[in-house]
Amino acid sequence: AVVVVGYVVAYEGIWKWMVEAVDVPPDKMLILVAKTGKEMPPGRIIADEGEKGVRLITYGTGRHFLNPFLYERQLHPQVVIGAGELGVVINKFGKELPPGEFLAGKDERGIQREVLLPGTYKLNPHAFEIKIVKMVEIAPGHVGVIAARSGKTAKGQLAEEGERGVQKRVLEPGLYAINPEAYSVESIEIGFNQITMAHAGKLPETLTTGQGADKNRGTQNRQRTQQAERSVAPVKPVLGAVKFPSSDGFEITIDVTLLWQLLPQDAPEVFARYGNIHKIEENILIPQINSTARIKGSTFGAVDFIVGDKREEFQSAFQETIEKTLKEKRLQVDLALVQDTLVPDNISGPIQDSRIAAEWNITNVEKTKTEAKKAQLDETIGLIRQIEQVVEYETQRLEGN
After folding, report:
1. Contact at 8 Å (CB) between 158 and 167?
2. Who is most buried in 77, 157, 224, 314, counting CB within 10 A?
3. pLDDT, tens digit, for every residue of 109-137?
4. pTM of the model as a whole
């Protein structure tokens, strides 16, 4: 009885509950490092059963009884992945990756393909490194174009599932847990975008709308707007007006507004060819506007941009060419409008003077006609009065008889 009581008091009461007991708080995990056993083979960092070193298994919240002479007991924070986040796991142990591959499978060392969703995880920090990143968010009015970083070489311009490169499928608006080490995602604005090109003083601010601007453009535009509000002088347009020579060698300046859109089904191919909206604007749309204006405008004389039906003819040719050319590039043009036309004063001045003189001539002719009509009216009124007098005289004579 004494032995039993002594055992219970010494082992259960003192040793187990005071020496072996480890309390793990709710936000912690317990990791063991074996102090006894065989040495691990070179290159290994995680010990198997019977080996000295870090054990892979972790213990969660609660009380655990572990011999401190056999194990070093370490408390570490649990891995917490919040809402809208995901965890990229990097294995620090396992088999080596095949040549040319950088994404690892479950038992391989390296960046894991699978990611951790929001939650709490007891992952041994000696065995795993966790990088917490934001999920991919596609805003309304955008689609996500996906580019795989690994896989087989794509046979075409767009990659199939399992191939490396820009994928055919796109991401609709929403939140996606996509491994950023495995895929890059470009948010592309769809729907209507606008480019306006105008001469200085025409508009206080000329913008390209849409995601085509880089991320700093919004801030820059706000700063420019604030500066414009503080200053009386007009702000120089961001995009200058289109200039080209007429067929008779005079410089013509036009203000242009281009309304265009990128359809969701065309986004992957357009992105693979030209890049994001900013690159599309800079490398495709703006050069195309200038090129079309120069080619079509050089067939018209300077006078054609002032009077007659030639201006409408140029507008139609400009829009038709822009629409056809960009349609071949999978870009839809809804409007290519020439808003204003500036012609050199030595051309426009005489023409305007002659038009004013012509209007004055027309006015003078009409005034002459009006005076003639007035004289004719006065003559008619005089004849009517004479007739009235004759009638009155005859009436009095007859009454006298």
Report:
1. yes
2. 314
3. 999 999 999 999 999 999 999 999 999 99
4. 0.65
